[in-house]
Recover the amino acids of this structure.
C-alpha cells in the first residue's frame, strides 16, 4: 500500500532528498512513521520540528484522502524504491521520491525522446516536430513532452498520429488537465502512453511547478530536442537539466532575428546543444538501431536505458543506476546522490565488487564493470 509513501511527501519541510535519507535510515516508509521522535532526531537533516511533524497522525489522514482520490481517477503511485519507478530517474540527485501516473505506457521504454519548445509555435516548428516524430517510428521511441500549447501538444498529437506512445509530464495533478483544451488529447494518450506528475491529485498548475516539471522531462529522455524557443523559457530550462543529467541535447536552428529562434540558436552557438539538420542527427547522437529495435535488442549510448541486474537489492540497484549516470564516481558523490550513509555504502560497493558488477579505482572512485 502506498499510504506511507504518500504521507512522507506531505510532511512539511520534507523534500525528496530528505525522504531518501529517512527511508535509508529507517528501512521503509512504514518504519519512518513508526520511529519514535528520539530515533528520528538522530538522522542527519531531521530537527525537532520535522521529527514531531512526522509523528502527527494528520499526515496519514491526508494520505488516506489522496489514496481515495487516486482510486477514483484510476491513477497510481510510483515510489523511488518500486520496481516500476522510471529507471532513468532513479539515479538522479534531484529525482522525485514519489510520482503519480495515469496510463498504460511503459515509463521504462527502451528508447525515449523529449520534444520541447515554445508555446507560440510556428508552422515551421510544428512541421519539424512532425518530421522528428515520424522518423522515430522505426525505433519505437516513446515521445516525452509537457502537454502545453505549441511544440508540446504538437509532439503529443504527432505521436498519436504516427502510432508512438507519448508521455505528458504535468505541473499539476493527473486529474487537472492544463490547458483544458488538451483534455481529449490527454485521454487518448493514456491508452498507449500516459500522464505523469509529482503533484497529488487536485493540485492546480503553479509557476513554481513548471521548472520542476521540466527536470522530469529531461530525466526521462535519452535525448532532448528543442524545436523552437525564445531567449528565455521552459524549453531552455529543460535543455539545461538535460545537459546536467548527461543527456544528448539537440536544437533546431531557426531564422535569424526571429523571436522563437533565439533560444535554439543560442544553445547551438554556446555548444550546449548539437545542431539538428535532419532526424539522422538524433539517431547518430544516441546510436539507435532500427534493426535492433525490431529484434527486441536494446542499444544506445545511454547506459541508463539498460536493465539493471535482477539479483541485487534496492540500494544496490540505486548505486548501479547512479554509476550509469555518473561513471567513475567518487564514494562521497555516491553517498550524497543516494543519501546512503558512508559506512553502509562502502559495504554495498564491496558486495557489488565481489559480484563483479563494479570495480574500485584509485582515489576512492568506482565504475561499472
Amino acid at each position: 500500500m502506498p499510504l506511507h509513501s504518500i504521507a512522507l511527501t506531505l510532511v512539511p519541510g520534507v523534500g525528496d532528498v530528505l525522504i531518501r535519507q529517512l527511508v535509508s535510515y529507517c528501512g521503509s516508509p512504514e518504519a519512518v512513521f513508526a520511529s519514535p521522535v528520539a530515533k528520528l532526531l538522530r538522522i542527519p537533516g531531521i530537527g525537532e520540528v520535522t521529527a514531531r511533524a512526522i509523528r502527527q497522525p494528520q499526515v496519514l489522514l491526508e494520505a488516506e484522502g489522496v489514496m481515495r482520490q487516486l482510486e477514483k481517477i484510476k491513477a497510481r503511485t510510483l515510489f523511488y524504491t518500486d520496481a516500476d519507478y522510471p529507471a532513468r530517474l532513479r539515479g538522479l540527485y534531484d529525482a522525485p521520491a514519489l510520482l503519480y501516473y495515469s496510463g498504460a505506457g511503459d515509463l521504462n521504454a527502451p528508447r525515449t525522446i523529449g520534444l520541447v519548445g515554445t508555446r507560440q509555435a510556428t508552422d515551421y516548428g510544428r512541421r519539424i516536430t512532425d518530421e522528428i516524430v515520424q522518423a522515430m517510428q522505426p525505433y519505437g521511441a516513446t515521445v516525452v513532452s509537457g502537454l502545453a500549447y505549441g511544440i508540446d501538444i504538437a509532439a503529443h498529437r504527432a505521436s498519436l498520429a504516427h502510432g508512438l506512445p507519448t508521455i505528458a509530464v504535468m505541473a499539476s495533478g493527473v486529474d487537472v488537465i492544463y490547458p483544458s483544451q488538451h483534455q481529449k488529447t490527454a485521454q487518448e494518450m493514456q491508452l498507449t502512453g500516459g500522464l505523469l506528475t509529482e503533484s497529488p491529485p487536485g493540485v492546480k498548475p503553479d509557476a513554481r511547478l513548471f521548472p520542476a516539471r521540466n527536470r522530469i522531462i529531461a530525466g526521462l529522455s535519452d535525448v532532448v530536442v528543442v524545436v523552437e524557443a525564445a531567449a528565455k523559457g521552459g524549453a531552455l530550462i529543460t535543455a539545461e537539466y538535460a545537459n546536467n543529467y548527461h543527456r544528448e541535447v539537440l536544437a533546431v536552428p531557426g531564422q535569424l532575428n526571429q523571436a522563437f529562434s533565439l533560444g535554439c540558436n543560442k544553445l547551438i552557438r554556446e555548444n550546449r546543444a548539437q545542431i539538428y539538420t535532419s532526424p539522422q542527427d538524433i539517431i547518430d547522437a544516441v546510436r539507435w538501431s532500427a534493426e535492433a529495435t525490431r529484434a527486441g535488442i536494446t542499444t544506445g549510448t545511454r547506459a541508463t536505458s539498460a536493465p539493471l541486474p535482477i539479483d541485487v537489492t534496492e540500494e544496490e540497484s540505486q548505486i548501479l543506476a547512479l554509476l550509469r549516470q555518473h561513471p567513475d564516481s567518487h564514494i562521497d558523490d555516491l553517498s550524497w546522490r543516494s543519501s546512503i550513509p558512508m559506512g553502509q555504502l562502502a559495504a554495498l560497493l564491496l558486495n557489488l565488487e565481489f559480484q563483479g558488477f563494479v570495480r574500485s579505482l584509485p582515489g576512492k572512485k568506482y565504475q561499472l564493470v
Observations:
- The mean pLDDT is 90.
- The first helix runs from residue 3 to 10.
- The CA atoms of residues 174 and 201 lie 6 Å apart.
